[in-house]
Design goal:
alpha/beta, Immunoglobulin-like, globular, binds 1-deoxynojirimycin, binds magnesium ion
Length: 572
C-alpha cells in the first residue's frame, strides 16, 4: 500500500514568478528553453498607412511580445526585393526594402528588442536570389562574365530539350531559358528566383559576408530558408520517379512524382553547414542560433542535420505538427510523432516543434478552434523549442481570399489546387477598430478576417477565457517551471481513446499534461499517478487550483489540463 502525503502546488499567478532564472539551477539557453515567435513583417503592423506592415510597426509592438512571454522573434525577409515571392526573392542581402523601412529602423528594432529581453532571428535565403539581384543581372550578360558561375547554367539538350527532368516546387520545370546567352538557368522555385551555385567558393564568401553584416548589427541568429536544397548533384542527373506518392506534399503534380535525390540533400551539405556554423560561432559577442528549414520525412535524415557542438544546425525545424489536419489530430498519431522526434534527436540535439508558419494553413483552421487551444497547450508543454506563428496566440483563422485579391505566386501559378498561402498571411488583428488597428491607411494589403471585431489583442487581453489569456498563461508557466522548459518527457500510454497525456518532470516538480482531443467528456484513469492541482485548463479558467485525483481525471470536451502533481512520498 502506498501512503501518500500531498503538498498542494500553488498555481502560477504572479509576475514576480516570471523571472526565468527562478528556481532554475542550470543556465538558461535562450534558444532551447525559450519560445520563438515568427513575424511576417508585411502583416504585423503598418505605421505609414501604405497597408503593408513595417519594421517600425514591429518595434512598436515589442512590449506586447515581451509581455506575452516569448523570448525571441524571427522576422521573415524584409530585404530589398521585387516581392514576387514576398521577400523570399532577395535583391540585396545587406539592406532593408523601403516598404519596410531603413537600416536605421532595423537598428532601432534590435536595440529595442534587446532592451525588453527579446532575441532577434532574421531570415536568410541562401538557395536563390531574385532575378533582379545585381549578381544575376551581371551573370546573365554573357557566358564568360565573372559572375556567370555564381548561378547554374546549362545548354539545351541536343534535341533542344531541358537539361534534366527536375521540377520546380512552385510548378513547371526547374529550368528557364535565357535568350541573350542561349542557356537554361536553374530555379528551385519561381523563374524570378534563380538558384545560387554553392559549389562556387566566391558565392560562399559573399553569402557569409552577409551573415557577418547582420551579426554586426546585433542579430542573435538565422533561420535559413530551404537549407537542404542549396546544393545540387554536380552531374545534374535526372531525379528518379517516386514509387510512393508522398502524402505530406500537397498534390503538387509533377514535383511529387519524383524522388528528390539529385536536387536536394547533397552529401556535401554537412561541410557547408559546418562552414556556416563556424562563420556564426566565430563572430564575437553572444550566443547565436542557426535554425534550418528542412522538409524531410525521414526522421533519421532529419536528425542528421543537428550538430549543436559538431557544426550542424542547432535546430532543424520539425514540421511534423504542420501535417495535422482534423483527420490526423489523433492522440496516437501525436504520441507517435513525439516519440519519433524524441528518439531521433537523442544524442543529436534539442527537439523543436512548429504549429504554424507563413506556408501552412492556420492551426485553428486545420484542427478547429476548440482544438487549437489544446494544440497551443501541447506546443508549449512539450520538450523542445516551440515556434509560434504570429496571430496564433489570439486564434486567428485562415481568411478566405477571393481570386481577384489573391497575391501568392504559388497559388496563382498552380490554379485550382488551393496552394495559395494568402489565407494564413492576413493582417494581425490588434483592435476592434477600423482595419483591426493594423493600418490607418485606406486598405491592408490582404483583406482582414471577418471575425476581427472579436478576435483581436485588445478584446482578448481583458478576457480571462480568451485564447490570448491562455497563451500568455502557458508561456509564463513554461518559463517559470524548469520541468516544462527543460524537464524530462514521459508519455503515458492510455487505453482510453481521445487523450494524449504525458508527464514533464525536473527535480521534485512534475506536471501531468492531459489533452482531450475529442468534443465529448472523458474520464482519464491513471491510477498510481498520485494527485495534484490544476495549474491550467484550456476551457475553464475557474478550475485552476482544483484538486485532482489521477485515478479519475474528468476532462470536459476539448479540454486540455496541466496538472501540477503533488510530490509523492511513499512507504511500503
Ligand atoms: C520557403 C519559404 O518558407 C517560402 O515562403 C518560400 O516561398 C520558399 N522557401 C522559397 O524561398
Ligand atoms: Mg507600411
Amino acid at each position: 500500500m502506498h501512503q501518500r502525503s500531498i503538498s498542494t502546488p500553488v498555481p502560477p499567478t504572479n509576475d514576480e514568478a516570471l523571472s526565468r532564472h527562478h528556481r532554475d539551477p542550470e543556465p538558461w539557453v535562450w534558444w532551447k528553453h525559450g519560445v520563438v515567435y515568427q513575424i511576417y513583417p508585411r502583416s504585423f503592423l503598418d505605421t505609414d498607412g501604405d497597408g503593408i506592415g513595417d519594421l517600425a510597426g514591429i518595434t512598436e509592438k515589442l512590449p506586447y511580445l515581451a509581455n506575452l512571454g516569448v523570448d525571441a522573434i524571427w522576422l521573415s525577409p524584409f530585404y530589398p526585393s521585387p516581392m514576387v515571392d514576398f521577400g523570399y526573392d532577395v535583391a540585396d542581402y545587406c539592406d532593408v526594402d523601403p516598404l519596410f523601412g531603413t537600416l536605421e529602423d532595423f537598428d532601432r528594432l534590435v536595440a529595442a528588442a534587446h532592451e525588453v529581453g527579446l532575441k532577434v532571428i532574421v531570415d536568410f535565403v541562401p538557395n536563390h536570389t531574385s532575378d533582379q539581384h545585381p549578381w544575376f543581372a551581371e551573370a546573365r550578360t554573357s557566358r564568360n562574365n565573372p559572375k556567370r558561375d555564381w548561378y547554374v547554367w546549362r545548354d539545351a539538350k541536343p534535341d533542344g530539350g531541358l537539361p534534366n527532368n527536375w521540377q520546380a516546387y512552385f510548378g513547371g520545370p526547374m529550368w528557364s531559358w535565357d535568350e541573350t546567352t542561349r542557356q537554361y538557368y536553374l530555379h528551385s522555385f519561381l523563374p524570378q528566383q534563380p538558384d545560387l551555385n554553392w559549389h562556387n567558393s566566391e558565392v560562399r564568401a559573399a553569402m557569409f559576408d552577409a551573415l557577418r553584416f547582420w551579426m554586426a548589427r546585433g542579430v542573435d541568429g538565422f533561420r535559413v530558408d530551404v537549407i537542404n536544397q542549396v546544393m545540387k548533384a554536380r552531374s545534374l542527373a535526372d531525379n528518379p520517379p517516386n514509387p510512393v506518392r508522398n502524402p505530406r506534399i500537397k498534390d503538387m503534380g509533377d514535383y511529387a512524382a519524383q524522388l528528390h535525390v539529385n536536387d536536394q540533400g547533397h552529401a556535401d551539405l554537412k561541410y557547408l553547414i559546418q562552414e556556416f556554423r563556424s562563420v556564426v560561432d566565430d563572430y564575437p559577442g553572444g550566443e547565436r542560433v542557426v535554425v534550418g528549414e528542412i522538409h524531410e520525412d525521414d526522421l533519421g535524415v532529419w536528425a542528421s542535420y543537428y550538430g549543436e557542438n559538431g557544426g550542424g544546425l542547432h535546430l532543424p525545424f520539425n514540421f511534423g505538427l504542420l501535417e495535422s489536419s482534423r483527420a490526423h489530430w489523433q492522440p496516437d498519431e501525436l504520441r507517435a510523432h513525439v516519440a519519433g522526434i524524441e528518439s531521433a534527436s537523442v544524442g543529436k540535439g534539442w527537439p523543436n516543434y512548429v504549429l504554424g508558419n507563413h506556408d501552412e494553413h492556420r492551426v485553428s483552421t486545420r484542427v478547429g478552434e476548440a482544438q487549437a487551444r489544446v494544440a497551443m497547450m501541447m506546443l508549449l508543454t512539450l520538450r523542445g523549442t516551440p515556434t509560434l506563428y504570429y496571430g496564433d496566440e489570439i486564434g486567428m483563422v485562415n481568411v478566405p481570399i477571393s481570386p481577384e485579391l489573391a497575391r501568392d505566386p504559388w497559388g496563382l501559378r498552380v490554379p485550382g489546387m488551393e496552394l495559395g498561402r494568402d489565407p494564413e498571411r492576413t493582417p494581425m488583428q490588434w483592435t476592434p477598430g477600423r482595419n483591426a488597428g493594423f493600418t490607418y491607411g485606406p486598405e491592408p494589403w490582404l483583406p482582414l478576417a471577418t471575425d476581427c471585431a472579436t478576435v483581436n489583442v485588445e478584446k482578448e487581453s481583458s478576457d480571462p477565457r480568451s485564447m490570448l489569456s491562455l497563451t500568455r498563461a502557458l508561456l509564463r508557466m513554461r518559463r517559470r517551471e524548469p520541468a516544462l522548459h527543460r524537464g524530462s518527457y514521459d508519455p503515458i500510454e492510455v487505453d482510453k481513446d481521445g487523450c494524449f497525456a504525458f508527464v514533464r518532470a525536473y527535480g521534485q516538480r512534475r506536471f501531468l499534461v492531459a489533452l482531450n482531443m475529442r468534443s465529448s467528456t472523458v474520464v482519464l484513469r491513471l491510477p498510481g499517478r498520485g494527485s495534484g492541482a490544476v495549474a491550467l485548463s484550456t476551457v475553464a479558467s475557474e478550475s485552476v487550483g482544483r484538486l485532482v485525483d489521477c485515478s479519475a481525471i474528468n476532462l470536459q470536451p476539448d479540454e486540455g489540463l496541466v496538472i501540477s502533481l503533488a510530490e509523492i512520498t511513499s512507504s511500503r
